[in-house]
Amino acid sequence: MTMWHVILIASAATLALKVGGYVVPAGFLERERPARIADLLTVALLAALIAVQTLGAGQAIVLDARVPALIVAAALYALRVPFVIVVIVAAAVAAGIRAFT
Amino acid sequence: MHDERAPGDASEVPAVPDARDLPDAADPAAGTRSDAARSAVIRDSLSVGLATAAYGISFGALSVASGLDVWQTMFLSLVMFTGGSQFALIGVLAGGGAAAAGPAIAAAALLGVRNVVYGMRMKPLVDRRGPVTRVAAAWITIDESTAVALAQTEDRSARLGFWLTGAIVFVGWNITTLVGALIGDALGDTRAWGLDAAAAAAFLGLLWPRLKRVQAGAVAVGAAVVATIATPVLMPGLPVLVAALVALVVGWFDLFDRKRATP
């Protein structure tokens, strides 16, 4: 698969899901259990992506400048600092550690 | 899209003032009241829309850093247009390259599942004029448009909030994606600039507003642990999908739902 194939298929899938909400009969995902799972699915995927993005290096697990950067990001989110600033600071922390080590 | 931060989360929108706080005590003329509701919803839409649009910069830069070109990055923001899925796709591709195509598509699609729920909620409100309107509504059905609509007390305000927020986020998100992509293109060595850490911080920003409940926190920790343990043994991309099973198990049996976390 080329990069364009991946992008086209993934975009078609997410767009189809959006349209799906308007064409399938309401009900199924409104029920408590499916709605709860749909909600938690988002949480699980984001948390897994954070773990892989912070600790993964191919198939290895490594502790490097990304870890302190993420800790700083968490502290800033807790202080309600806006998203864009947090992302920039996290990049700066990692870049700074790499520049001086 | 975040706090409410990225196109992603209708569960909480701190940027939206409560429309019910509007003064209507002594019953002024009904017209005045609906004018007030109208300007309140326009204010909501603008604040959420503009705040969200700014995250496009980080998406654009990270997307280029993960190996997509500017056109591919723009295609995602124009057509996929749902921040969580966009970040997930480029995140998995960054880790695994073309070999992770399948898991990358699956991760993006799974993160798009919540838009089905949003569509079901918005349909009675906005799907009123045939197929073109329906597709347009579906296209802009994201966390922000849904959240602003749900925060309104009147149907007319909710409808206006949905379309206005969706339109502002769409235009702003695409403009800032382009800016971010061009910046990312110019940066070169992305690790030296810390863009890999920025990606993790971006995901954390999408996750943060969802961690109000103990149950969500438990799922987040469990999924992160599973993904980490699975990384050395599974091909890139799959650990994220395996971690999604944590949500399935916890959600099915409704585990850890005893009390609320402190906000």
Q: How would you describe this protein?
A:
Chain B: Residues 1-33 are annotated as: Disordered. Chain B: It is found in: Cell membrane. Chain B: Belongs to the AzlC family. Chain B: Keywords: Cell membrane, Membrane, Transmembrane, Transmembrane helix, Transport. The complex is a heterodimer of chains A (101) and B (263). Chain A is built from four helices and two strands. With 101 residues, chain A is mostly helical. Chain A folds into three domains: 1-25; 31-60; 63-101, no CATH class. Chain A has a two-stranded antiparallel sheet with strand order 1-2. In chain A, a hairpin with a 2-residue loop joins strand 1 and strand 2. In chain A, helix 3 (66-78) runs antiparallel to helix 4 (83-100). Chain A starts with a helix and ends with a helix. Chain B has two domains: 19-195, no CATH class; 211-263, no CATH class. Chain B has twelve helices and no strands. Helix content of chain B is 68%, strand content 0%. By secondary structure, chain B is mainly alpha-helical. Chain B has helices spanning 30-53, 56-65, 70-80, 83-96, 101-111, 113-126, 131-139, 143-150, 155-187, 195-207, 214-230, 238-253. At the A-B interface, helix 1, helix 2, strand 2, helix 3 and helix 4 of A face helix 3, helix 4, helix 5, helix 6 and helix 7 of B.
Compact overview of the structure:
Chain A: Pfam families: AzlD (PF05437). Chain A has helices at 3-23, 32-55, 66-78, 83-100; strands at 56-57, 60-61. Helices cover 75% and strands 4% of the residues of chain A.
